[in-house]
Design brief:
Length: 443
């Protein structure tokens, strides 16, 4: 029995081919802007050499599509171990006998050719791995996630100045203040989004008290007030773990910022610029976000509060795929896909706002939430425990919404990212929330 009809199957094949090609051209761009020596070098102990990401992308594609879905013979099982993220910690990867750039590119090409053969004949049966093209969607998202990681590596190495991205749109609406979200249940997670990953499932009802959430991400201007007020020097605003980290790591501003006369500048893909006040702050860790929120008399939103603000439609009571509805993002909705190579000023995407008027939830910056990473109630690991389940626990905080470096295929209202609370090489920012008194929510 085929889960999708012939015509739908053809449409799905085309969509998969398009998405695979889009991911591959981004991978090519991010690995062709540097020479072989730079591809092999480790630019930060937090990151892999770019050539490791490159071959790892091909290896995952071989494992899941060529071998598992296709049932074909391995192309290169000799390299599986080298590109297994669990067997090789990032700091050890440069010392491995990695494929050289030309070999890695040839390997990716061979794997992709096999995948196209497979795509011509595969039947999208009800087998969970292939139903709705799931494994292909997972591999598209995997490549795009590594592309975002490679983009972060370029930021760390101060590279990519050769790329000329158009500036993001200017603010089109005045955006600020808070939005009141009324108390009540909403549906969190999904059962129906075909390419949603295991940790986004299943859909379940969550009841929340009323709360207020910022209408826009915290901006550099907001954050500068925290710095100017001595926020980095005052342990009152920090959690004990946050303060210990601030002292140890000598944090005094977001990553990539430096003093410039009496103000601040940041280094962005190899170019220094004055800090722009109305842009969402980026490259802050969870502890910095939490300290700012405390200083501001607020707190970080829980993950459920973020998702309700992003998906709940007060008219229908339904949860939608995105703040603006169920349609995939366009350039008018959100700043995604490294199109602009920077967060857009707040107010630049009025078409992407939620019905309650919450802006820029999708794109611009990943937003820290106060929630540690766990499975939704009824979670089942699929198709492998190492995507999500092995990270569940108290060590990681959830980030939501995607950044300017996230592709639209790897970003939606249910998509969940996670990282250690001290990490800030990712494109991470935040917005604040607070409890509201019942009287306040009656107004
Ligand atoms: C979901 C971004 C935390 O990069 O570690 C890539 C995505 N998983 N390869 C990561 C991922 C396996 C993951 N994050
Ligand atoms: Fe990976």
């Amino acid at each position: 029995m085929s889960a999708v009809g012939h015509v739908d199957g053809e449409r799905l094949r085309d969509r998969i081919a398009t998405e695979l090609a889009r991911a591959r051209s981004r991978t090519a761009l991010l690995t062709e802007v540097v020479d072989d020596a730079d591809l092999m070098r480790q630019h930060s102990p937090l990151m892999s050499p770019l050539v490791w990401d490159l071959a790892h992308v091909g290896n995952q594609e071989e494992l899941w599509l060529v071998r598992d879905v296709g049932g074909r013979e391995p192309l290169r099982c000799d390299i599986d171990e080298l590109y297994d993220a669990f067997k090789q910690p990032r700091r050890d990867r440069p010392a491995l006998p990695l494929l050289a750039p030309a070999e890695a590119r040839a390997y990716l090409g061979t794997v992709r050719d096999k995948v196209h053969d497979l795509l011509d004949t595969v039947r999208f049966t009800e087998r969970p791995l292939v139903a709705d093209g799931f494994a292909f969607g997972m591999i598209v998202q995997h490549e795009q996630q590594h592309d975002e990681t490679m983009l972060a590596t370029h930021q760390l190495r101060s590279g990519l100045a050769v790329l000329h991205a158009p500036p993001p749109p200017e603010p089109q609406s005045r955006t600020g203040g808070e939005v009141l979200v009324p108390a009540g249940e909403f549906t969190m997670g999904t059962d129906t989004d075909p390419w949603a990953l295991d940790n986004e499932r299943p859909a379940h009802r969550v009841d929340l008290p009323a709360y207020a959430i910022d209408a826009a991400p915290v901006t550099n201007g907001d954050y500068l007030s925290f710095i100017a007020d001595g926020g980095y020097a005052d342990p009152r605003w920090w959690s004990p773990a946050g303060w210990a980290h601030r002292v140890h790591a000598q944090l005094d501003a977001p990553m990539h910022w430096h003093r410039d006369g009496d103000g601040w500048a940041y280094q962005r893909f190899g170019r220094a610029e004055r800090v722009r006040a109305d842009e969402p702050v980026v490259h802050v860790c969870f502890h910095e976000a939490q300290a700012y929120a405390t200083w501001a008399g607020k707190r970080l939103p829980t993950e459920a509060e973020w998702e309700k603000a992003a998906r709940w439609d007060p008219v229908s009571g339904r949860s939608r795929r995105y703040p603006w509805g169920d349609d995939d993002p366009t350039d008018a909705h959100a700043n995604l896909g490294q199109r602009h190579l920077r967060p857009a000023p707040v107010g630049a995407y009025p078409a992407g706002a939620s019905p309650l008027g919450v802006h820029q939830l999708i794109g611009d910056v990943w937003e820290w939430t106060s929630t540690t990473f766990h499975g939704h109630p009824g979670f089942r690991a699929f198709p492998y425990r190492e995507y999500s389940e092995v990270f569940f626990g108290e060590d990681y905080r959830v980030l939501r919404g995607g950044s300017f470096g996230t592709d639209r295929s790897a970003c939606r209202g249910t998509f969940r990212n996670w990282d250690y609370p001290i990490r800030r090489q990712i494109f991470s920012g935040f917005r604040c929330a607070r409890d509201v008194h019942p009287d306040e929510s009656q107004r």
